[in-house]
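Reagents: none. Just compute today. ATP-dependent RNA helicase DbpA.
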Amino acid sequence: MSVITNNGKSPLAFSSLNLHKDLLKNLTSLGYQEMTPIQAQSLPKMLVGKDVIAQAKTGSGKTAAFGLALLEKLQVKRFRIQSMVLCPTRELADQVATEIRKLARAVHNIKVLTLCGGTPFGPQIGSLEHGAHIIVGTPGRIEEHVIKGTLKLDDLNLLVLDEADRMLEMGFEAALDNIIERTPLDRQTLLFSATFPKQIQAISESIMTDPVMVQISASEDQSNISQQFYAIENEIERFEALRLLLLANPVESTVIFCNTKKETQAVCNNLHDDGFSVLALHGDLEQRDRDQTLLRFANKSAAILVATDVAARGLDIDSLDLVVNYHIAHDSEIHIHRIGRTGRAGAQGKAISLFSDKERYKVGLIEDTLDQVIKPELLPSTEVLNNARAQAKMSTIQIDGGKKQKVRPGDILGALTSKNTDAKNSGTELQGKDVGKINVLDNKSYVAVNKKVLKTALRKLSTGKMKGRTYKVRHLTV
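Predicted 3D structure written out:
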């Protein structure tokens, strides 16, 4: 197996690749000019059909890398399943499918189908009967379809394992084996993983042919992230330290990582009681609640998200200002993965870590990984206790109508910004700038609006019409 490491060369332009002109034109319209390190090292190898193992964290540009590789290889006129991407969670699968559709929008008639657990099985069978080019999904649900014969992989020529280490951690190894043994032997296989446990090595040897390994050094990958470490005496002081640091670093969006579900909920409750705008994300939540939590944090309706590593797998926030490690991660590579959620797309990021005497050895492991000395800093003065608590600028409104009712984002934006016809409310117009992210799902839609115009937005959506009818709406409170 040959190994490619980041050699510090200047960024390469996408135009230097042998990509279809429509894909290149679309990349330009999306503002994708220069490749990230993982793209520059892996894409040329993928495009010539090589099997690739790539060490890549969320936010490194890995989705665009394998997305472009599979789109370049795709034969649109062959309406068969040609590519499949396996992801550890439904949230990540949804984001991968969205990114692939975005990359493919200049190429007509490409169908991407998402197959995940937590959603009804029957409608997925119907969608499969109508056909698709690309499948994105979780191992459990895809294995179910494969066993039942509703998903046939005879024409598959490219398989992607995204966040393979997490799929193994979550117990999907048997499902992966079951799926892969039903795919053609001559397929191309791409494996992406933030860490490289022995299981990854074993899997790669059994399912890949002469793979190229691409590694980006941890220090290079985190070069635009400022890290600060704070030593604490005990668990009581840990929360007080967190509170001081949050008050001293007033930002729009913060993720706090905890090591257990119980701790995650406790930290969230304590911050909420102290007046912060905060949500929790962990495995004890129902899938619907997890989906809504991710959506509300992504659209700026909550300022802080407290999460476990597994629950935050699908977290994809473009402008995350701050990452806090409430406890140091069990593994230094997981630490790198956590803090890599800030400082994306070349932006500056900040990461804060709290540690006790018992965790000092973990700090030493991080020093070894990053090849740098870590010096603990002094906590902020208690004078910051009078500072304002982090609050969200937006609020989320749920609309009881979605794709199946033919509701589109433009319909929602139009209903919100339409002119008032009654004199009573003529002074309460909404502007486009008052409206944030709009998410349209099968039977529900969600729109973020500026808190200052929440009442007006609720009135407009509850009394106005979309597609000739009115819909029930409600405000999702933190």
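The longest helix spans residues 90-103.
Action item: order primers for follow-up constructs.
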